[in-house]
Amino acid sequence: xxxxxxxxxxxxxxxxxxxxxxxxxxxxxxxxxxxxxxxxxxxxxxxxxxxxxxxxxxxxxxxxxxxxxxxxxxxxxxxxxxxxxxxxxxxxxxxxxxxxxxxxxxxxxxxxxxxxxxxxxxxxxxxxxxxxxxxxxxxxxxxxxxxxxxxxxxxxxxxxxxxxxxxxxxxxxxxxxxxxxxxxxxxxxxxxxxxxxxxxxxxxxxxxxxxxxxxxxxxxxxxxxxxxxxxxxxxxxxxxxxxxxxxxxxxxxxxxxxxxxxxxxxxxxxxxxxxxxxxxxxxxxxxxxxxxxxxxxxxxxxxxxxxxxxxxxxxxxxxxxxxxxxxxxxxxxxxxxxxxxxxxxxxxxxxxxxxxxxxxxxxxxxxxxxxxxxxxxxxxxxxxxxxxxxxxxxxxxxxxxxx
Length: 403
Description:
The protein has 14 helices and 15 strands. By secondary structure, the chain is α/β, with parallel strands linked by helices. It folds into two domains: 4-204 and 378-401, Glycogen Phosphorylase B (Rossmann fold, 3-Layer(aba) Sandwich), CATH 3.40.50; 223-375, Glycogen Phosphorylase B (Rossmann fold, 3-Layer(aba) Sandwich), CATH 3.40.50.2000. Strand 9 (252-257), helix 9 (263-272) and strand 10 form a beta-alpha-beta unit. The longest helix is centred in the N-terminal third of the chain and has 23 residues, at 79-101.
């Protein structure tokens, strides 16, 4: 059988939401005898040499742009240009690899898939696009709004207008688009992507790695809150910090696991965290989930939000916004709270409600765990594989049979 090519982002194995997402795709596609070529995903730690992935061939991408360029050249003021150039180089490299492989199907991620999608269209090869977030224009609008409001400057990061045009061309060239939530699909449709192209396929989760600890001790003191993720403006952590000040900084302690973002954003958060009981460091999120009583993801744009599923699997009730795809997993005031985004008052109300019902939080977390076991079980992998390998695709405006 002809090989299938999957063009991924080049992120390290399992690092961050996109890393987990990429590995889930490879795991799904490898559930059979078809030869899978993973382009741009590193083979560190012998990942693809395990027996479970005997049909997967990893193609580590060449060094695209050295990291020092972003730190010491003019690009440090325009990180969005750096990301655009890097992703274009990955896309051109992947196109050359695919042209040599001549796969029967292609599965690509946004930002890096344009060149392969163009090749697939030219050669009448079915191609699926994985879109981890909502529409790219909504994401850019959120970042521009928040940058003007809080940093008092125009937004210069990812995505640039050139990147937006690139991704919109990917939307157009893809035969089908995979998203992970109703929210993500609605976002794409709202900006004009044809609904018939879009399929919602849930994300699986490693339920052995993410599981509850021994029963949490009922302790007094501040409510223990956890956040996992980057500190960029689209994640809305500044609204969480302001919400904590509304509630009373002495009543809530916040633990952040994640990177601190670029320099302007880092300085902004250093100011916003003043007077708040907060600890911040990168690392493994599982211990933080086990120390917390409540998890909060105050995101302003999130196609799914892996960390919400992780926290629920670890037995935590969660507070999420309406602009997070995994909000649909939350049963209001039973497994958590869903609040409007960019609204510190609503976040403060949810935190206050959690404090009033502190003795019920463990039971809420237990129910959250049960829900995740049902929503993120391994059947998601089969669903994705069946979707990729089904015989009929829309290629352009015509139904294409590839059986």
